[in-house]
Design brief:
Elements: E1 9-13, H1 16-19, H2 60-74, E2 78-82, H3 85-88, H4 99-114, E3 118-124, H5 130-136, H6 143-158, E4 165-169, H7 179-183, H8 194-218, E5 223-230, E6 233-235, H9 240-262, H10 269-275, H11 284-290, E7 296-301, E8 305-307, E9 331-332, E10 338-339, H12 341-355, E11 359-363, E12 373-375, E13 378-380, H13 384-403, E14 407-413, E15 433-435, E16 447-449, H14 451-461
Parallel strand pairs: 1-2, 1-14, 2-3, 3-4, 4-5, 5-7, 6-8, 7-11, 11-14
Antiparallel strand pairs: 9-10, 12-13, 15-16
Helix pairs in contact: 2-4, 6-8, 8-11, 12-13
Amino acid sequence: MSVFPKDFLWGGATAANQCEGAYNVDGKGLSVQDVLPKGIFGPVTDGPTEDNLKLEGIDFYNRYEEDIKLMAEMGFKVFRMSIAWTRIYPTGEEDAPNEAGLAFYDRVFDTCHKYNIEPLVTLSHYESPLHLSKAYDGWRSRRLIDLFAKYAETVFRRYKDKVTYWVTFNEINVTSHVPLLGGGVLTPRDQLSKQDMYQAAHHQLVASGLVTKIARDINPNFKIGCMVASAPRYPMTCHPDDVTYAMEEQQELTLFVHVHAKGEYPYYTKRLFDRDNIKLEITEDDKQSLTHTVDFISFSYYNSKTVAKDPTKYELAQGNLYRGLKNPYLEYSEWNYPIDPQGLRYILNFYYERYELPMFVSENGMGALDHPIEENGTLTINDDYRIDFHKGHLREVGRAIEDGVDVFGYTSWGCIDLISAASAQMEKRYGFVYVDRDKDGNGTLERYRKKSFYWYKDVIGSNGESLFE
């Protein structure tokens, strides 16, 4: 028998800004992603430019039926996706929502249900309305709390019978490190203090609690989750300095989960904030909003992070947002990311031990350069490297379940090839489905099944038993 529960939610994940395209169609407003043609590593432009691959994305806006059908062919039980705030409220400040945007997501959800796929919807996935970034510097302003609540209430009411699982913010902890990506903050990071970044993140935490209450008032059957970027911290050595440093870094990460799960900041917040001279403005209303805790914890996991009190003695590694030191016991991808399946079992146990809330792995995957070949008149990709990555990580999810962790779902990141969130590139592909589009935006946008497509189909069809054969 499989170690995975019989109702385990197998699936994949995307984000509106990385797949939909149609940036100016049917009344959609501009988001910060529409003026970042080189991602967070490049300049903010005055407006959309032709070299921004996200403007067309992979044309999910027009091809969603084809894409969801491919997901159904793999056997998906769940599809994690996001709603583009600017399709519903183009600037974020309109009095009435944009009906064409609401109708689009009606069609998407109806198509999911046609194939018995459960939507899991992220309300905010790195795409703050550009107007709010320009007018208020994004989430640095309290004004966004009420505007976000209005948007959330609109979609909760519209889709109360079509969506059960909701996530408030994608990787909410990223705002305290990459405020442009996470919080739509246009002020350059080098001009912001830790105080500025954590205050913006605090506003998001308050908004998350507020909309969790709104959701339950509208439909008590909703399941509301948080979502954080997770990379367990390993000490480089067993020297107490390194072990303590790793503990402090892990606490800084766990703070965001703790607020969502317990309804208040954790005991170690004072020490962390005193270190960086952070004095948050927290009102009594803020405290009340934070008490509305989540039903489940979800997170992204791409790699672990190895740290040391004195990092200058060690070689650096890359990673997905969280970048640490080169761990000599791990293998590395062609992007120099650590490949650490056991870290996924570790972080599942780490969170569950502390909070005992159901766990959902909402992002996990391997970015790689795929090389399509023609077989029997069609393109395919023999991506054994991706199969090996997912097999290793899913086995560790199974072992976490055997440990006693309540894990109810797993969505591979970029189940269909997407535009990169951080760099706005197409080359680093994660999907089980290949999209014919190159780094310059050329291609037919046709979809092709990779070798991993059929492998994942077998995994889902066996409810994970094939992972251990």
